[in-house]
Design goal:
Layout lengths: L7 H18 L21 E2 L8 E6 L2 E14 L3 E13 L6 E14 L2 E16 L3 E7 L10 E7 L2 E8 L14 E6 L2 E7 L6 E4 L3 H16 L9
């Protein structure tokens, strides 16, 4: 059945992150906890998905570019034994003086239930393809894991000769306890962090360093992951 257009996913994540921060800070004011960043990115200025809302379609601004998108998420429930989650997003990124970049992404995940036990028969798999001003591909897969453990994900973004490794991040700044859901993603090139995407708040933030062409590739991948409704976090 279709998921309702709801804010409860991001609100729930923000609440859990805020509670973690409150527990760490005692009586300090509650703020949304932030993802733990690699040292190489600690001095970089983050870019914000300015104007992004919770809807299935819309637009927002990102570092001088305009992004228009459509997205969806659905769950098929077969009795109480099998559930199939699907999500999709498409976006167009337009920047003055450059060809528009278009992306198409889809994600799938299948879970089986045996009594109180729940497991991923087919772990989350995300695939994206870009055209127009960039020809690229992204593949990210979730590692098979028992219920209640971290849903770690890793994959690759390939654009011509440029290859990035992408890994999920599950730690918050100042917290020794990892989250089950990703707090965001880190982008690596040759083992060195060149970008990151933070998903702990309702509006994603991203970091990108290095040459302009490399930063734009990081942005392309980060926008896709930032817009995709996560099947692992959705509720029917």
């Amino acid at each position: 059945m279709p998921y309702p257009m709801s804010t409860r996913i991001a609100q729930g994540f923000a609440l859990s992150a805020a509670l973690s921060a409150a527990l760490l800070g005692g009586c300090a004011a509650i703020t949304v906890a932030q993802m733990e960043l690699p040292a190489a990115l600690s001095g970089a200025v983050p870019q914000v998905f300015q104007g992004l809302r919770y809807g299935r379609q819309g637009r927002f601004d990102l570092d001088g570019a305009t992004v228009r998108f459509e997205r969806s998420a659905d769950r098929l429930q077969l009795f109480d034994a099998l559930s199939q989650d699907k999500a999709a997003v498409s976006y167009t990124l337009e920047r003055a003086g450059q060809l528009a970049v278009r992306a198409q992404c889809r994600a799938r995940r299948t879970e089986v239930s045996l009594g109180v036990l729940v497991g991923a028969a087919r772990p989350l798999h995300v695939q994206c393809e870009w055209s127009g001003g960039a020809t690229a591909r992204l593949d990210i897969a979730e590692r098979s894991a028992a219920a209640g453990t971290r849903q770690e994900r890793e994959g690759r973004y390939t654009e011509g000769d440029t290859v990035f490794e992408i890994r999920s991040v599950h730690r918050l700044q100042g917290s020794p306890l990892p989250l089950a859901q990703p707090a965001g993603y880190v982008v690596l090139r040759g083992g060195q962090a060149v970008g990151a995407l933070e998903l702990t708040d309702s509006v994603p933030r991203l970091w990108a360093i290095g040459p302009p062409a490399q930063q734009q590739s990081v942005v392309h991948a980060a926008v896709a992951l930032g817009l995709l409704w996560d099947p692992g976090a959705m509720a029917p």
